[in-house]
Amino acid sequence: MSRILSVDYGKIRTGLAVTDPLQIIANGLVTVATSKLFDFLKDYIAKEEVERIVIGRPVQLNGQPSENLARVGQFVNRWKKEIPHIPIEYYDERFTSVLAQQAILASGVKKKTRKEDKGLVDEISATIILQDYMRSKRF
C-alpha cells in the first residue's frame, strides 16, 4: 500500500502529516514554509509512494468560506493541473487548530517551546485532519 498525506495549508507555514504505508497510523511529518510547499511535496512523492493528498478545507463555523480558502483553492488547482495522477481532496478542518493547541498543552510542552515552535500547531493540525479523514473512511 501507499501513504496518505495531509496538508494544513497556511498563509505563511503549512503543516504536513502522513500515514504509514499500511495506512493505520497518522504521524506529523513537518512544517514547511508555504512558499516552498509545492516543491517539498514533489520531492516527497518522488521518494515515497503517496496514494492521495487530503487538504484541510478552511471554513468558518457557519460554513462560509474563510479568508484562506481562496489560497487553498489556488494550490489545489495547481496540484490537479501539474500532478493529476495523485488525487487531492478537501476535508473539513474546523476546530483542528484548537484541538492541536489543546493536545500540545495536555502533553506538557513547555511555554517557551510553544512560543518558539509555531509550526508545531500546524503539524499537529495536519495530523488531526488525517486521523479524522482515516476514521471517516473506515465507517
What does this protein structure show overall?
This protein is an alpha/beta fold and 139 residues long. 45% of the residues lie in helices and 24% in strands. It is built from 5 helices and 5 strands. It has helices spanning 37-47, 69-82, 96-106, 111-116, 119-138; strands at residues 3-8, 13-19, 26-33, 50-57, 88-92. Strands 3-2-1-4-5 form a 5-stranded mixed β-sheet, sandwiched between helices. Helix 3 (96-106) crosses helix 5. The chain is globular and about 35 Å long. The two termini are 20 Å apart. The model has no long low-confidence stretch (mean pLDDT 86).
Short structural description:
This protein has helices at 37-47, 69-82, 96-106, 111-116, 119-138, and strands at residues 3-8, 13-19, 26-33, 50-57, 88-92. It has 139 residues and is an alpha/beta fold.
Mean pLDDT: 86
Order of helices and strands: EEEHEHEHHH
Output the structural class: alpha/beta
Shape: globular
Distance between the termini: 20 Å
Instruction: Give the strand order of the largest sheet, numbering strands 1, 2, ... along the chain.
Output: 3-2-1-4-5
> What's the gyration radius in Å?
14 Å
Give the secondary structure arrangement, pairings included.
Elements: E1 3-8, E2 13-19, E3 26-33, H1 37-47, E4 50-57, H2 69-82, E5 88-92, H3 96-106, H4 111-116, H5 119-138
Parallel strand pairs: 1-4, 4-5
Antiparallel strand pairs: 1-2, 2-3
